[in-house]
Specification:
361 residues, mainly alpha, Arc Repressor Mutant, subunit A, two-stranded antiparallel ribbon, 58% helix, elongated, DNA-binding
DNA sequence: AATTGGCGCAACCGCGACTCC
DNA sequence: GGGAGTCGCGGTTGCGCCAAT
């Protein structure tokens, strides 16, 4: 275990959040209210004294290397659980809550550090599109990753992309951007990575879900949306059945990971299948079913088809583009694509080009 | 070299759910 | 049944780093 020096860098005296806990300035009291307010003031004073006493006893802020070692050694000897009792027994001047957080988010030996892989990013985007901000639920499907890590990824990277697009991260427009631009490119990158390492794709769940894939040959910068996934069980290069199986195995990983997790809810979440989880030997049929489930929300495939036409029709056919835009509420996109956006490969201020999306990775 | 602003991430908080007595 | 203690989750904060100016 390599303990990062930064964990000790802050040291004592850095107590984020303390100011927020302080009571604000009290408004002037009227006479009839005085007695009650004086009692409340006394109570408040006692509370402040109690908090001050606690503050002397309990440390907050960044963890030191010594504290980390103490916690690691204690858990190695006694295991997790009963965090408040653990904190006291280990001699740590921390709340149980703080110990739990430090262990789960930083010290756990099975944690995976470093940047998210393309596979993991795909999975996050896909799961978030279905579950929203259910970070722990999403994390349950990414072995070695914490909900905090995923939450931070979303807030920093994904929301940054939404900002670039000048739209809300929960808007349909941004979701379209993710689904039709970002995710296919991630899938492409993931496939390339696996090909480079000559490994089967480990967890391309979005492909299983019927996500359109980007054609590998996009020398022009244009993206072809492959809509054949839904009605074919042929072996697509980036969406092979093996990837489906390994995705399923990723879930079983989680189940075992959650075995040492106390929370029944967490375990249940880990064991929960992704939508209507198909048997391993029928992923492609199930993909169609899942796609139909998604169609309940919006017309995925007609939109994909429209975008495909957009990309292939070229900038010249403005009439066609505006017709499609009107049909699919993609006016902004068409504008962006045709006015020096995706079709020309150059960047624009408010809308992504493919190059922009990629640079933002 | 100094300053500034943005970003990433660890840690905190509040709250609801759960468990135990 | 209900109160106290605990746990887990999602949201927020603020420090440190680093690139741009």
């Amino acid at each position: 275990m390599v303990l990062q020096q930064s964990s000790a860098a802050g040291g004592a005296g850095m107590f984020p959040g303390v100011a927020a806990c302080r009571p604000g300035p009290r408004p002037a009291a009227t006479a009839p209210m005085m007695a009650k307010q004086e009692r409340e003031a006394d109570d408040e004073h006692e509370e402040e004294q109690r908090q001050a006493a606690n503050a002397e006893e309990l440390r907050r802020g960044p963890w030191t290397v010594d504290e980390d070692l103490t916690l690691i050694n204690y858990i190695a000897d006694h295991g997790e659980g009963r965090w408040n009792a653990l904190a006291r027994a280990a001699g740590l001047k921390r709340t149980g809550k703080s110990c739990r957080l430090r262990w789960l988010n930083y010290l756990r030996p099975d944690l995976k550090r470093g940047d998210f892989t393309a596979d993991e990013q795909l999975l996050i985007l896909d799961l978030h599109s279905r579950w929203g901000n259910r970070w722990s639920k999403i994390a349950a499907h990414l072995p070695g990753r914490t909900d905090n890590e995923i939450k931070n990824y979303w807030r920093t990277r994904v929301q940054k992309h939404a900002k670039q697009l000048n739209c809300d991260v929960n808007s349909k427009r941004f979701k379209d951007a993710m689904r039709f631009l970002w995710m296919p490119r991630l899938a492409e990158r993931a496939a390339a990575q696996h090909q480079h390492h000559r490994q089967p794709s480990p967890s391309l769940t979005p492909c299983i879900m019927g996500m359109p894939t980007a054609a590998p040959s996009s020398s022009s910068g244009l993206m072809m949306l492959d809509t054949t996934v839904s009605n074919s069980n042929s072996n697509s290069s980036s969406c092979s059945p093996s990837s489906a199986v390994t995705s399923s195995s990723s879930c079983s990983n989680l189940t075992s990971e959650s075995a040492h997790d106390d929370g029944a809810r967490h375990a249940a979440a880990a064991a929960e299948p992704i939508l209507t989880a198909p048997a391993d030997d029928d992923y492609w049929g199930a993909a169609t079913t899942m796609q139909q489930q998604q169609n309940d929300h919006y017309d995925f495939w007609s939109t994909a088809s429209a975008l495909q036409h957009l990309c292939t029709a070229g900038a010249a056919d403005h009439h066609f583009q505006h017709q499609v835009a009107a049909d699919h509420d993609l006016t902004g996109w068409v504008q962006g694509f045709s006015d020096g956006g995706i079709l020309s490969g150059s960047s624009s201020d408010n809308l992504w080009s493919l190059d922009d999306i990629w640079r933002m990775q």
